[in-house]
Amino acid sequence: MKEHLSPQDLRPLTASQKEMLRSLWRPAINDMAVASICTNVETDEYEDIEFVVGQVLINDLGRTPRIVLRRLRLMEDPMEQEEDIAPETGGDNDALMDAQAGDEGDEYDEDFDCLYIEPEEFFNLEDCLPLLSIGQMIDYIRKSKFGQRGYKLIIPPEESKLFEQSMFRLEDSDGEGYENQELCDLLWDIFKTYVLGVL
Length: 199
Description:
Helices cover 27% and strands 25% of the residues. The strands form two sheets. It has a five-stranded antiparallel beta sheet. Strands 6-7-8 form a three-stranded antiparallel beta sheet, with helices on one face. It has helices at residues 7-10, 15-24, 78-83, 91-102, 134-142, 183-194, and strands at residues 32-40, 45-59, 66-71, 122-124, 128-130, 151-154, 168-172, 177-180. The longest helix has 12 residues, at 91-102. The protein is of the alpha+beta class. The two termini are 26 Å apart.
């Protein structure tokens, strides 16, 4: 069963519909998202990078605050964090620095590690769209015109019999209904129609 949208579901949306979806979304930790990153400026090629939001950072140094999403890191190495701490200055370190200063400056110091941040770790909110889950879409639909008076969701049994309904069905209070094989796709169709206004 499909549990959330995929980048392919978002591709048919127009730029204004994508902007509306982005404005509705309040990013939170553990949200699924996709960032559209330009890989070739000359040919206008973009790559979709799916990620889980690990941190929401707000930079309010400018006129308008800028929101940056940080990718969730599943496992952080505690050894890496210890190596990032600068050593305390002392006699041994000073002697080592004096000895290295006497060496030729052309040699590469293999112990030197520079701080490197993956380019795929931080994303501007303007480059991202949410990959909404079933629960998130239900919440948005409840607040829309379709869900104002409530609606009924019919979930078919896992093993359908000959005369039983085999599709997910959503009906509003007026009896207007929608059907689909996938619950996520059914909710996305209703979301696009009643929340984003796609016809």
